[in-house]
Amino acid sequence: xxxxxxxxxxxxxxxxxxxxxxxxxxxxxxxxxxxxxxxxxxxxxxxxxxxxxxxxxxxxxxxxxxxxxxxxxxxxxxxxxxxxxxxxxxxxxxxxxxxxxxxxxxxxxxxxxxxxxxxxxxxxxxxxxxxxxxxxxxxxxxxxxxxxxxxxxxxxxxxxxxxxxxxxxxxxxxxxxxxxxxxxxxxxxxxxxxxxxxxxxxxxxxxxxxxxxxxxxxxxxxxxxxxxxxxxxxxxxxxxxxxxxxxxxxxxxxxxxxxxxxxxxxxxxxxxxxxxxxxxxxxxxxxxxxxxxxxxxxxxxxxxxxxxxxxxxxxxxxxxxxxxxxxxxxxxxxxxxxxxxxxxxxxxxxxxxxxxxxxxxxxxxxxxxxxxxxxxxxxxxxxxxxxxxxxxxxxxxxxxxxxxxxxxxxxxxxxxxxxxxxxxxxxxxxxxxxxxxxx
Length: 439
Fold this sequence. Notes:
11 strands, 16 helices, 439 residues, alpha+beta, Cytochrome Bc1 Complex, Chain A, domain 1
């Protein structure tokens, strides 16, 4: 009886939390094609203004990789009405903060201001869109900034190139095969006219979603949006072709070297479906089951019990066109990489041949329920989620309904997806090794 009461109490609490966190929003289009989403939350005097552009590394010329990430930096240089170098000063002097980030699929800019500065945030984002100054001095300055970022985060970072090596081996045709930060030689070779053409093509209102979330007066904000963004001309329509990869039917074996590491790693990577497919959600759960926390199957077996690995993990990198499911391990002492692979494969085989336990399944459901509730706990996160669900999933309502997808997943689904995608003949097996001094 006590267990039943506790279970009922837990169910009621989770259900209440999920309901309490429901995000209300309004969305509409401007005449120029810009999509607008408004979320009002007057619980705290802050507001997030953000613009997401449907342009990422996959939209680049293969001979000019790194452009989308470069623009993440370049469009802070200044505009016709914001002097060069003044962007961050304006934001900070008005009590705000801002940032931007780029993926293979999109670029995202945002500001967080006290709510009495919502108009300032809207004006700045409209300036970035309507009046950017793209000149040689800005390109040269940001070229050095990006090079330093690459040196810090990739070239000199331990295991900094393992994703790069996964991507170029598992994708042969699709532009996911190169990294978001791109190739510095491509940026060096690019002309000013090429940067200006990239901006003209992709940084247009009909390739963007504007989100304003927080302590706002909706009618007043709508007028501001019309005043600042309405007059911006619509750009030419962008034609996109999704490049299809041939299925992987035989194992791909590759070796990469890294002078910044002393411990090798084994990486098994599988090509998986788009983030929009239910199977991608199932793979999220599977990666959590295998490697999330010290009680997960891979950690408990390889690190805790057998003491074969220093570190082990699995994660599902879902993207708009394809995903990549990655499992990796770092051996402890003299343990061989192939022994780590064998142990990992045994755990995957168990999932393929047996349903996971009811207890483990319930833990997964609780974990993803909790993540869903937390993801909607602040306006900054809500703004990002609203943008992402609209632009990459084509379904803004997922901000409230995505948890229903996770709730619909069964133990059989987990087994079926493991059988379908995590097979030895469908993967890349990458040995990531310390680089010898004479290499």
